[in-house]
């Protein structure tokens, strides 16, 4: 089989790439080793960010629309950021990632991308100016492509074959665990609640409300032998809820040390989780998966259309786009993550007390951090410079 653009992986990043890559009429093929699209979990994305990414909201994957955020310190000081306290609260969607992925599949197919399931990539080689990918689908055998986009996720075997593998050592990852929980009034305020401090060492805990009595409750922690994220979450639930039922559980590991510096090679781009496109501060992946996939598709389509060489120099357009439009924020958030990692429970309590009466007008993540920097004594010069 021959194609202009081949995408390995039909997850969120891969299908966003496919949707954009078809824009100029190129042949786009997506291969996926699973029998259908499948992305487990529930996350939030702000309405502002979804609109900026030009994704139309769909009730099929929106579980709830929240009022705002509540930030909670270890001593139970709460910073409420919703219509009751600020002029411009950051409202968010609670998103079912599996249904979102299915919607993207429909968009990609409607854009004339071809998707082949039960088709695992097994090897990569080069033939002149093209890339040849062997697959375990006997009806296909191998696919020759001008541009290859690898969007396989963290367990990508193909990134290893092209020496663009993300460093998944413990220091560069976080352990994520999340439960679907039923409990009276668990989501009564309809805010996304975040809890900081020793409740989740190296990360934070969250409550994503679905309705008054249902929520997704999770936490992220250091990925080491000192922290059992499941045990920590069980303790958190016991402390916060009098009576509850766990309906479902899921856990995974995410890269949180920023985006890979090397994410392109001749004819090749790496996108999504496989290249570390995760928000290192919130540990949410949806926004960056969408954005990195879109930019990979745009760059691939542009390069094929203009007939430019597809060597690494020209493929660096993807690096340039993602550096400007994603990585600048990611680097700031990574430094903020490291700062928060240095804080004790007492530090969080002091910061919360200093922020409790601060006048905020907007509650997007950058403004919250700027308010913290302006109103608290703890942040250092480096953090202040990043948010100047």
In short:
This protein has helices at 12-21, 47-52, 97-110, 158-161, 229-240, 286-306, 312-341, 345-355, 365-375, 381-386, and strands at residues 2-8, 28-31, 42-46, 62-65, 68-72, 78-81, 92-96, 114-116, 121-127, 130-135, 142-150, 173-182, 191-195, 204-211, 214-222, 245-255, 264-265, 268-270.
Number of domains: 3
Order of helices and strands: EHEEHEEEEHEEEEHEEEEHEEEHHHHH
Structural class: alpha/beta
Rg is 21 Å
CATH architectural type of the largest domain: 3-Layer(bba) Sandwich
Terminal-residue CA separation: 52 Å
Structure summary, number of beta strands:
18
- In the predicted model, the low-confidence regions spanning at least 5 consecutive residues are none
Q: Spell out the CATH superfamily of the largest domain.
A: FAD/NAD(P)-binding domain
Q: What is the helix tally?
A: 10
Taking the sheet with the most strands, its summary is:
8 strands, mixed
Strand content: 25-35%
Write a structural description.
The protein is an alpha/beta fold. It folds into three domains: 2-37 and 98-167 and 259-338, FAD/NAD(P)-binding domain, CATH 3.50.50.60; 42-95 and 170-255, D-Amino Acid Oxidase, Chain A, domain 2; 342-386, no CATH class. It contains ten helices and 18 strands. It has helices at 12-21, 47-52, 97-110, 158-161, 229-240, 286-306, 312-341, 345-355, 365-375, 381-386, and strands at 2-8, 28-31, 42-46, 62-65, 68-72, 78-81, 92-96, 114-116, 121-127, 130-135, 142-150, 173-182, 191-195, 204-211, 214-222, 245-255, 264-265, 268-270. The strands form three sheets. Strands 1, 2, 8, 9, 10, 11, 17 and 18 form an eight-stranded mixed sheet that branches. Strands 6-5-13-14-15-12-16 form a seven-stranded mixed sheet, covered by helices on one side. The protein has a three-stranded antiparallel sheet with strand order 3-7-4. Strand 9 (121-127) and strand 10 (130-135) form a beta hairpin. It starts with a strand and ends with a helix.
């Amino acid at each position: 089989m021959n194609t202009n653009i081949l995408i390995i992986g039909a997850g969120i990043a891969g299908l966003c790439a496919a949707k954009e890559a078809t824009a100029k009429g190129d042949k786009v093929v997506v291969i996926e080793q699973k029998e259908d699209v499948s992305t487990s979990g529930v996350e939030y994305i702000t309405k502002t960010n979804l609109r900026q990414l030009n994704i139309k909201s769909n009730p099929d994957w929106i579980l709830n629309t929240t009022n705002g955020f509540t930030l909670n310190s270890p001593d139970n000081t709460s910073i409420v950021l919703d219509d009751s306290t600020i002029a411009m609260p950051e409202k968010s969607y609670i998103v079912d990632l599996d249904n979102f992925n299915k919607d993207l599949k429909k968009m990609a197919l409607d854009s004339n991308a071809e998707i082949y399931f039960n088709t695992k990539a097994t090897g990569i080689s080069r033939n002149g100016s093209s890339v040849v990918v062997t697959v375990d689908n006997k009806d296909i055998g191998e696919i020759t492509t001008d541009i290859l986009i690898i969007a396989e996720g963290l367990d990508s075997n193909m990134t290893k074959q092209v020496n663009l593998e993300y460093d998944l050592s413990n220091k560069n990852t976080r352990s994520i665990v999340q439960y679907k929980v039923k409990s009276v009034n668990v989501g009564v305020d309809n805010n996304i609640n975040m809890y900081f401090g020793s409740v989740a060492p190296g990360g934070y805990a969250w409550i994503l409300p679905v309705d008054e009595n249902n929520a997704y409750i999770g936490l992220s922690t250091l990925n080491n032998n000192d922290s059992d994220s499941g045990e920590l979450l069980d303790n958190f639930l016991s402390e916060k809820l009098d009576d509850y039922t766990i309906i479902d559980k899921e856990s995974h590991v995410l890269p949180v040390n920023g985006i890979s510096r090397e994410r392109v090679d001749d004819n090749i781009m790496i996108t999504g989780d496989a290249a570390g496109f995760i928000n290192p501060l919130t540990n949410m992946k949806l926004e960056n998966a969408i954005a990195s996939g879109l930019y990979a598709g745009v760059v691939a389509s542009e390069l094929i259309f203009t007939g430019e060489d597809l060597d690494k120099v020209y493929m660096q357009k993807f690096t340039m786009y993602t550096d400007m439009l994603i990585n600048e924020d990611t680097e700031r958030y990574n430094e903020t993550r490291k700062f928060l990692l240095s804080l004790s429970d007492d530090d969080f309590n002091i910061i919360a007390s200093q922020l409790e009466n601060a006048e905020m007008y907007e509650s997007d993540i950058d403004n919250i951090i700027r308010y913290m920097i302006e109103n608290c004594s703890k942040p250092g010069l480096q953090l202040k410079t990043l948010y100047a």
